Structures are given as structure tokens and as C-alpha cells.
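User: Here's a chain of 77 residues. Predict its fold as C-alpha cells.
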Amino acid sequence: MSVAFVPERLRGKAEVNQETLQRLLEENDQLIRCIVEYQSKGRANDCVQYQHILHRNLIYLATIADATPPSTQKTVD
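Assistant: Prediction complete.
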């Protein structure tokens, strides 16, 4: 199950920290690899569930980024 999935009763109560974000990024990496593998084998229909999880994870990350004040965001040099 995706680390981005949080039951309705717990939403807004979870602490977002660097470890959680790193796990989510690693999960996204695995999801992308699975999607590419399925597509390369001509099994595009089998990768739809992974695409949905990846989409949810990306929306979650974007929401966190949008909610983070600019002074606390890290920049890449």
C-alpha cells in the first residue's frame, strides 16, 4: 500500500518529515519501473493500477509542496 494513502480519520494529522518524503520518492521510482516493464511487455492494461498509485503519490507531493512556505523549501543549486 502506498505511503501516501492515509485513512480519512487520520488525514491532516500525520507529520510529514524527510523520511516519509524519501520513502514516497523511492516508492514512485519502483512504480515507474513496474509501469515501464509492463508496457515494454505489451501489458499496458496490467499497469493501470500502478499508474493510479503513482498519480495519487504525485498529487500528494504537489499538495505538500504547495502548502510549504517558501522560507522552508530547499532549493537545488
